[in-house]
Design brief:
globular; single chain; 6 helices; about 100 residues; Cytochrome Bc1 Complex, Chain D, domain 2; mainly alpha
């Protein structure tokens, strides 16, 4: 019985890990970085508050790995000099707010 409970617990933890690809990120820190560095550019390209870049039908980002790659691309192209943990914070915020990727 103990083994069955342990197995069930491990499966639950594993499914949670799959449900959150950016579990070590800090969404509130990511939100602050997005507001400071991303919104003005996205708004000038897509209008409004710029969030259409994340929700458009023909969006480029289609996976959690793609999200990190796009954030890294913007970081490099705009010379933001974010560290990897800051990119992860942005990824967590954007994923929770718009994308909802599970792996």
């Amino acid at each position: 019985m103990k083994s069955l409970c342990l197995l069930a617990g491990l499966l639950l933890v594993n499914s949670y890990a799959l449900a959150e690809p950016f579990k070590t990120g800090d969404a509130s820190a990511g939100k602050a970085l997005v507001e400071k560095n991303c919104i003005s550019c996205h708004a000038s390209s897509f209008g409004g508050d710029g969030s259409a870049i994340y929700t458009r039908d023909y969006r480029k980002v289609k996976s959690a790995k793609g999200l990190v790659a796009q954030i890294r691309n913007c970081n490099t192209m705009l010379d933001l000099k974010w560290f990897e943990d800051e990119e992860l914070n942005v990824a967590k915020y954007l994923n929770q707010t718009y994308y909802k990727f599970t792996e």
